[in-house]
Amino acid sequence: MNIFRLAGDMTHLASILVLLLKIHTIKSCAGISLRTQELYALVFITRYLDIFDGFSSIYNSIMKLIFLGSSLSIVWYMRRHKVVRRSYDKDQDTFCNQYIVLPCLLLALVFNHKFTFKEVMWTFSLYLEAVAILPQLVLLQRTRNIDNLTGQYVFLLGSYRALYILNWVYRYFTEPRFVRWTTWIAGFVQTLLYADFFYYYIVSWKNNVKLELPA
Question: Please, what is the end-to-end C-alpha distance for the chain in angstroms?
Fold first, then answer.
């Protein structure tokens, strides 16, 4: 644990709280991609297969339960809640998730640290998390109507990964033999996907104008 990882975890947690705040308070999921939320739920399910048979620390266990439970609850709200689901724009959220899931699974089967079920699923979750935001970014570009909470959610989600890169840099220089090529490459790709959104988010914040992405 170091300050960069802690900041990354707290930023990730903040992004989820912002999204839950929007869903619970406004009773709306407008501008939120169900496709992305389903991908994140799959990420956490496949990453935390060891939640009941492998104990690292109380902190890790609590965070795993929070991320897993919140991702599943968000999917439930968007699919089942009689009020929230009415605001879901399924006509615009049409990204085909199989175009992401299948390549990530194939990559995990070929490029992994050890060819065991848990290790392949953990590697798959890394690859999938790197590109899970794509349906959300596509939806925002299509609608171009981004409310403050949605913008903050995506910004915090991207910031969490950027902070984790700083965590890896810190660990590389402070821990002997700390090398995680799969994690590093996936994290770098994920951060690059946010670059365009970061630019327009910061410009809109600086100029105090509504956030809009180019078509």
Answer: 41
